[in-house]
Amino acid sequence: MRALRFLMMMLEALLPSTLRIWLLRRRGATIGAGCHIGAFTILDASNIHLGDCVQIASFNLVHRLSRLDMGNGSRMNGFNWITGAGTGRLEVGKNSAITRFHFFEASGDITIGENSIIAGRDSHFFTHGISATNLDDVRSIRIGSWCYIGSSSRFVPGSGVSKGTFVGMGSVVTKPFTEEFLLIAGNPAQMKKQLSSTDVYFDRAFLPHDHHPTNYRGG
Length: 219
Fold this sequence. Notes:
This protein is mostly beta strands. It has two helices and 24 strands. It has a single domain, classed as 3 Solenoid (UDP N-Acetylglucosamine Acyltransferase, domain 1). Helices cover 10% and strands 37% of the residues.
């Protein structure tokens, strides 16, 4: 039965965006105005909630999520793989972006705040792991608002960063960083510098993207 369902989703992935959005709405998905879902993208989530002006590009695989939430003005570029165990949730805040070739293992929840970027490529987020004392370690990952996650970063179960955090390329984040406006880097990641909320990166009303309409004001 599941194989047949997946085959149907693959066939639907060939449909134009407007028709796919119509079908998803018919099945109970909440999808706002001005959204686009690219060809060859599979959305296998029990609950789908997309705000206004959300763009999901072609060649994404969203597999076995309990819920996919994307806020107004957010986007997901191509060739990302988001998978869960039928229980996990991916939440992407307003105006945030996931670029290309990233992997999200979302057996637990993964939350990305508003105006944040999962930048570059090849970052991995794991909410499920195994240790010598725990064969089923499932803990959520939280990325705060106005964060920048550099290429090839790694996040382990239970890790995360708070508002205004820059994560250096290739970092391995092994714990939750609760302090705001930090630059962290390394393996394991450590604080390298205190940033300021008045730095130019944060001194904007919202994070703009090229898919936003000209009259968009941040959702």
